[in-house]
Amino acid sequence: MSEHDTYQTPLSSRYASKEMAHLFSAENRFHTWRKLWLSLAIAEKQLGLPISDTAIDEMKQNLHLDAEQFEVAAAEEKKRRHDVMAHVHTFGTVAPSAAGIIHLGATSCYVTDNADLIFIRTALTLVFKKLAVVIDRFAAFASQYRELPTLGFTHFQPAQLTTVGKRATLWLQELLWDLRNIKRARDDLGFRGVKGTTGTQASFLALFDGDHDKVEELDRLVTEMSDFPYAYPVTSQTYSRKIDIDVLAPLASFGATAHKIATDLRLLAHLKEVEEPFESTQIGSSAMAYKRNPMRSERICSLARHLMVLHQNALGTASVQWFERTLDDSANRRVTLPEAFLTADIVLTTLQNVSEGLVVYPRVIARRVAQELPFMATENIIMALVKKGGDRQEAHEKIRVLSHEAAYQVKQLGEENDLIERVRKDVYFDPIKDELDALLEPRSFIGRAPQQVDKFLNEWVTPALQDPELKAAVHKGDKAELNV
To answer: PROSITE patterns from the xrefs (predicted)?
Structure first.
């Protein structure tokens, strides 16, 4: 291994989108290093250092590595045990006029850290846009089922009714928070810039004969060339690893959201109320041919757990950076950062695929509502009797007795809930029997759920997706295709 551990392409990249996989590829990494070396040379030349136009032109013409250069770099790294210097040498072989000024005054972290910040910013943008598409798809689902009554659960025990669409808004609200947090993290990113070996810029001050203004301008120019709004005002040899904490936190938080959504969908699949997409030729089980396992949602949960724990690596790494730096951050970050974004990308693709093909079974939902609704309707029945002159305490006792009898039928005998039939047969309830059907209408138990869905979509989701950066992604219309 070199001083800087060799970059490896994470296994998860084969399942991620082409854009995200390419972003963290060796090809793009070393191409970005060369662009950073070019920016440094251009800025140094602009500020008076003797760098020839020919050197600049040769660097510009050789920003991409071909297969032969990768072989040269690998051989050099094996010999030098230092990846950055191996690539400095390799770049010089195709830009010989620049060989003496490539990496002039810089330390390895000039390319490694600045490149990481470029990758992080681009990756956050990709995640930001893909998340907007997922939000759009779930919003359409929520709107479609805004008033379909369904049994609500607390403690996974039957509770009051809600609607299928209202439940989806609970998912959407958390996704909106993730969208906000990811944008904040991206927009807050700075650049390491040109800071030298311990962050003092001493090497650049020597290059410019003690001219502090030129050193500051060099930092500004290189930052501007990489299109960052600012450079971190002070750094050590590296940018603070606390930045990685800020970057991975919203990804981990999104992982928690995705896990909750996918878990809800797995439970709904068990209830046979809502199912994820299932192809006609898909096999749910090698032994049980009838099974329709929620494998997409299970995959989301599996990867989301991985995504959530990667944040712990950033916390641990930031906490042990002694003084101006240690190298025990390197191998960890080269795994953690790409893995976090590649994993988030796969989770988003899978979540979009699920959201675009959810299958709702209204009759199953209605049957479950009918099983539980009689118990929920008891208060309405009591109130209706009181309005007709009945005594509340007496009515309550009548309903209590009948409810226990019906519960016995359900729990002990496995029969259907027959509470309403018992009410119809009891002469005590004659005054309100013609109202029973109305009292048992499920839509009378969903409160303002449909109105809440409309208000939430109109006042929160739609405005969030009006961000100009997100419009093209949302309206592109491509369906998510899984690589596996």
So the answer is: FUMARATE_LYASES (PS00163)
The pLDDT tens digits of the residues spanning 416-472 come to 888 888 888 888 988 888 888 888 889 989 999 999 999 999 999 999 999 999 988
State the Cα–Cα distance between residues 12 and 353, nearest whole angstrom. Answer: 18
Residues 236 and 348 in one domain: yes
Provide the CATH number for the domain around residue 420.
1.10.40
Cα 119 to chain center, whole Å? Answer: 16
On whether both 398 and 266 belong to a single domain, the answer is: no
CA distance 352 to 331: 32
The answer to whether residues 197 and 131 belong to one domain is yes
How far apart are the C-alpha atoms of 279 and 283, rounded to whole Å? Answer: 9
Q: Catalytic: which of 22, 212, 285, 475?
A: 285
Our answer to whether residue 155 is catalytic in this structure is: yes
Dihedral angle computed from the Cα positions of residues 296, 301, 306 and 307, in that order, rounded to the nearest 10 degrees? 90
Contact call for residues 237 and 107 (beta carbons, < 8 A): yes
Degrees, nearest 5: CA angle 435-439-441: 120
Would you say 426 and 398 are in contact if contact means Cβ atoms under 8 Å apart? yes
Nearest residue to 319 (alpha-carbon basis) of 329, 306, 330:
329
* DSSP SS3 for 404: helix
pTM for the full predicted model: 0.89
Concerning whether 285 is annotated as a catalytic residue, the answer is yes
Could you tell me the CA-to-CA distances from 460 to 115, 134, 165, 172, 470 in Å, in that order? Answer: 35, 15, 15, 10, 15
Catalytic residue among 155, 270, 280, 286: 155
DSSP string, 183-212: HHHHHT--B--S--SSSS-HHHHHHTTT-H
CA distance 158 to 181: 34
Rg (Cα) of the chain, in Å, rounded?
Answer: 31
Q: Are residue 300 and residue 420 in the same domain, yes or no?
A: no
Residue type at position 247: V
